[in-house]
């Protein structure tokens, strides 16, 4: 008999969380067993199917997550950093091995370190972007960034909808880290987060970021490599938020590995696309 993966979703009421819940409900090999909201949620104790304007599914939104974790094979996270950290740390002290797939962005350095610590005990896949297209351009950016830094400037720009909470986007950051890896430099030392006033000439070797927010744009990213005589532009546009949900399902299946589950560790979409 084919096994069914039991899934809990964190942040099921948000833009990403709703798309992921719908994808889980549509996946024949998955069952939604938990939907975790915060105590201030406007959608507390709602049937997830009804919340999505579908038939009742028998899984209701709740605040305590311990019972859902006990039932789950995997947790898919579409919430916000504080919830991600508290659930990841709770999972790290659980005896049974349940994986966490998080798409959340906007972690502070301290939160990222706490997530990495939790990943020593939990199989944890962190994806600043679930799109497989972004995973591909991440590799392209790393490859392009081998061009000599003295001749080629790297600039990253992103645009998102007016409601996005964090900047630069998680995707812009993962592209910046890919560029830094390609160049063999320390990302934090070379990142220029914004420019204003009398900035003077561009510092050689830096990676510049620019952010726009407006309207309903789902996500646009561009990495430009600029020399005096030519330019490379690597860009990506998301046309439909369901691409994130689809990628999250692909990542979840990779993490479950046919029911065996992955070993504790920090994984990324690169592991998924290279499999
Ligand atoms: N990796 C990827 O491919 C993608 C990642 N994202 C990321 O996913 C996250 C969620 O994005 P999005 O769905 O657009 O955001 P939303 O604001 O629409 O949803 C976030 C949900 O998380 C819950 N939540 C839990 N804790 C908090 C908190 N402390 N403050 C606010 N809300 C909280 C809220 O639900 P409630 O109040 O009901 O508990 C809220 O509905 C972001 O980090 C975003 O960058 C987004 C799209 C794609
Ligand atoms: O908040 C969003 O909407 C998105 N967030 C992710 C990010 O920060 O990169 C992914 C996607 O671009 C949409």
From TrEMBL:
GO terms for biological process: diaminopimelate biosynthetic process; lysine biosynthetic process via diaminopimelate. GO terms for molecular function: 4-hydroxy-tetrahydrodipicolinate reductase; NAD binding; NADP binding; oxidoreductase activity, acting on CH or CH2 groups, NAD or NADP as acceptor. It is an enzyme of class 1 (oxidoreductase). Its EC number is 1.17.1.8. InterPro entries: DapB_C (IPR022663), DapB_N (IPR000846), DapB_N_CS (IPR022664), DHDPR_bac (IPR023940), NAD(P)-bd_dom_sf (IPR036291). Pathway: Amino-acid biosynthesis; L-lysine biosynthesis via DAP pathway; (S)-tetrahydrodipicolinate from L-aspartate: step 4/4. The keyword NAD applies. Residues 6-130 form the Dihydrodipicolinate reductase N-terminal domain. NAD(+) binds at residues 11-16, 103-105, 127-130. It comes from the Bacteria. Keywords: Amino-acid biosynthesis, Cytoplasm, Diaminopimelate biosynthesis, Lysine biosynthesis, NAD, NADP, Oxidoreductase. PROSITE patterns: DAPB. The keyword NAD applies. It is found in: Cytoplasm. Residues 133-272 form the Dihydrodipicolinate reductase C-terminal domain. Homotetramer. Catalyzes the conversion of 4-hydroxy-tetrahydrodipicolinate (HTPA) to tetrahydrodipicolinate. Belongs to the DapB family. This is 4-hydroxy-tetrahydrodipicolinate reductase. It comes from Maricaulis salignorans. The gene is dapB.
């Amino acid at each position: 008999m084919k096994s069914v993966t039991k899934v809990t979703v964190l942040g099921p009421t948000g833009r990403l969380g709703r798309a992921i819940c719908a994808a889980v409900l549509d996946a024949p090999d998955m069952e939604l067993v938990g939907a975790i909201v915060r105590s201030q949620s406007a959608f507390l104790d709602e049937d997830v199917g009804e919340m999505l304007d579908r038939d009742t599914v028998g899984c209701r939104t709740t605040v305590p997550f311990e019972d859902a974790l006990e039932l789950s094979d995997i947790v898919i996270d579409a919430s916000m950093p504080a919830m991600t950290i508290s659930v990841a740390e709770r999972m790290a002290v659980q005896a049974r091995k349940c994986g966490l797939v998080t798409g959340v962005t906007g972690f502070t350095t301290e939160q990222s370190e706490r997530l990495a610590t939790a990943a020593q005990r939990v199989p944890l896949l962190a994806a600043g972007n679930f799109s497989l297209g972004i995973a591909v351009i991440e590799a392209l950016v790393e490859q392009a960034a081998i061009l000599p830094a003295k001749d080629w400037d790297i600039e990253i720009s992103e645009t998102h909808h007016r409601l996005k909470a964090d900047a630069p986007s998680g995707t812009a950051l993962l592209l910046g880290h890919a560029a830094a890896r390609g160049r063999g430099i320390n990302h934090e030392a070379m990142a220029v987060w914004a420019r204003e006033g009398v900035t003077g000439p561009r510092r050689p070797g830096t990676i510049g970021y620019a952010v726009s927010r407006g309207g309903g744009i789902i996500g646009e990213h561009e990495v430009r490599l600029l020399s005096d005589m030519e330019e490379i532009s690597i860009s990506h546009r998301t046309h439909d938020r369901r691409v994130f949900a689809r990628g999250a399902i692909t990542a979840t299946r990779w993490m479950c590995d046919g029911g065996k589950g992955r070993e504790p560790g920090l994984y990324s979409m690169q592991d998924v696309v290279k499999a």
